[in-house]
Every structure is written in structure tokens, then in C-alpha cells.
């Protein structure tokens, strides 16, 4: 069984204007998913830009 997750940012400019607190949370998020990938639980993860 496979799932694909898409996180919707809180605002369109989030990747450009994160606060220090938001950036820290995002670093924790990346560390979590890196560990999931290292354990073979997540196959891939990374930033995705919605176009169109």
C-alpha cells in the first residue's frame, strides 16, 4: 500500500518568508522525513511546487 501526501503551505509565499520559528519547525519536519526514508518507510520526499 502506498500513500502520497501533499502539504499545503499556510500562504503562497511561505517558502520565501518563513519566520525563524517556522523555519525551525520545517527543519524538524525534514529531519523526521529523512529518518522515515532512512528506515525505508518513506520512499521519497521533498519540496514540491504546484504549477498551473
Describe the global form: flat
| Mean pLDDT across all amino acids | 89
Order of helices and strands: HH
- Ends distance: 29 Å
Strand content: under 5%
Report the major sheet: none
Secondary structure class reads mainly alpha
Count the helices. How many? 2
> Which residue ranges are poorly predicted, with pLDDT under 50 across at least 5 consecutive positions?
none
Helix content: 40-55%
Radius of gyration (Å): 13 Å
DSSP summary, beta strand count: 0
Descriptive key words:
single chain, 52 residues, mainly alpha, flat
Structure description:
It is a single chain. By secondary structure, the chain is mostly helical. The protein has 2 helices and no strands. The termini are far apart. The chain is flat and about 35 Å long.
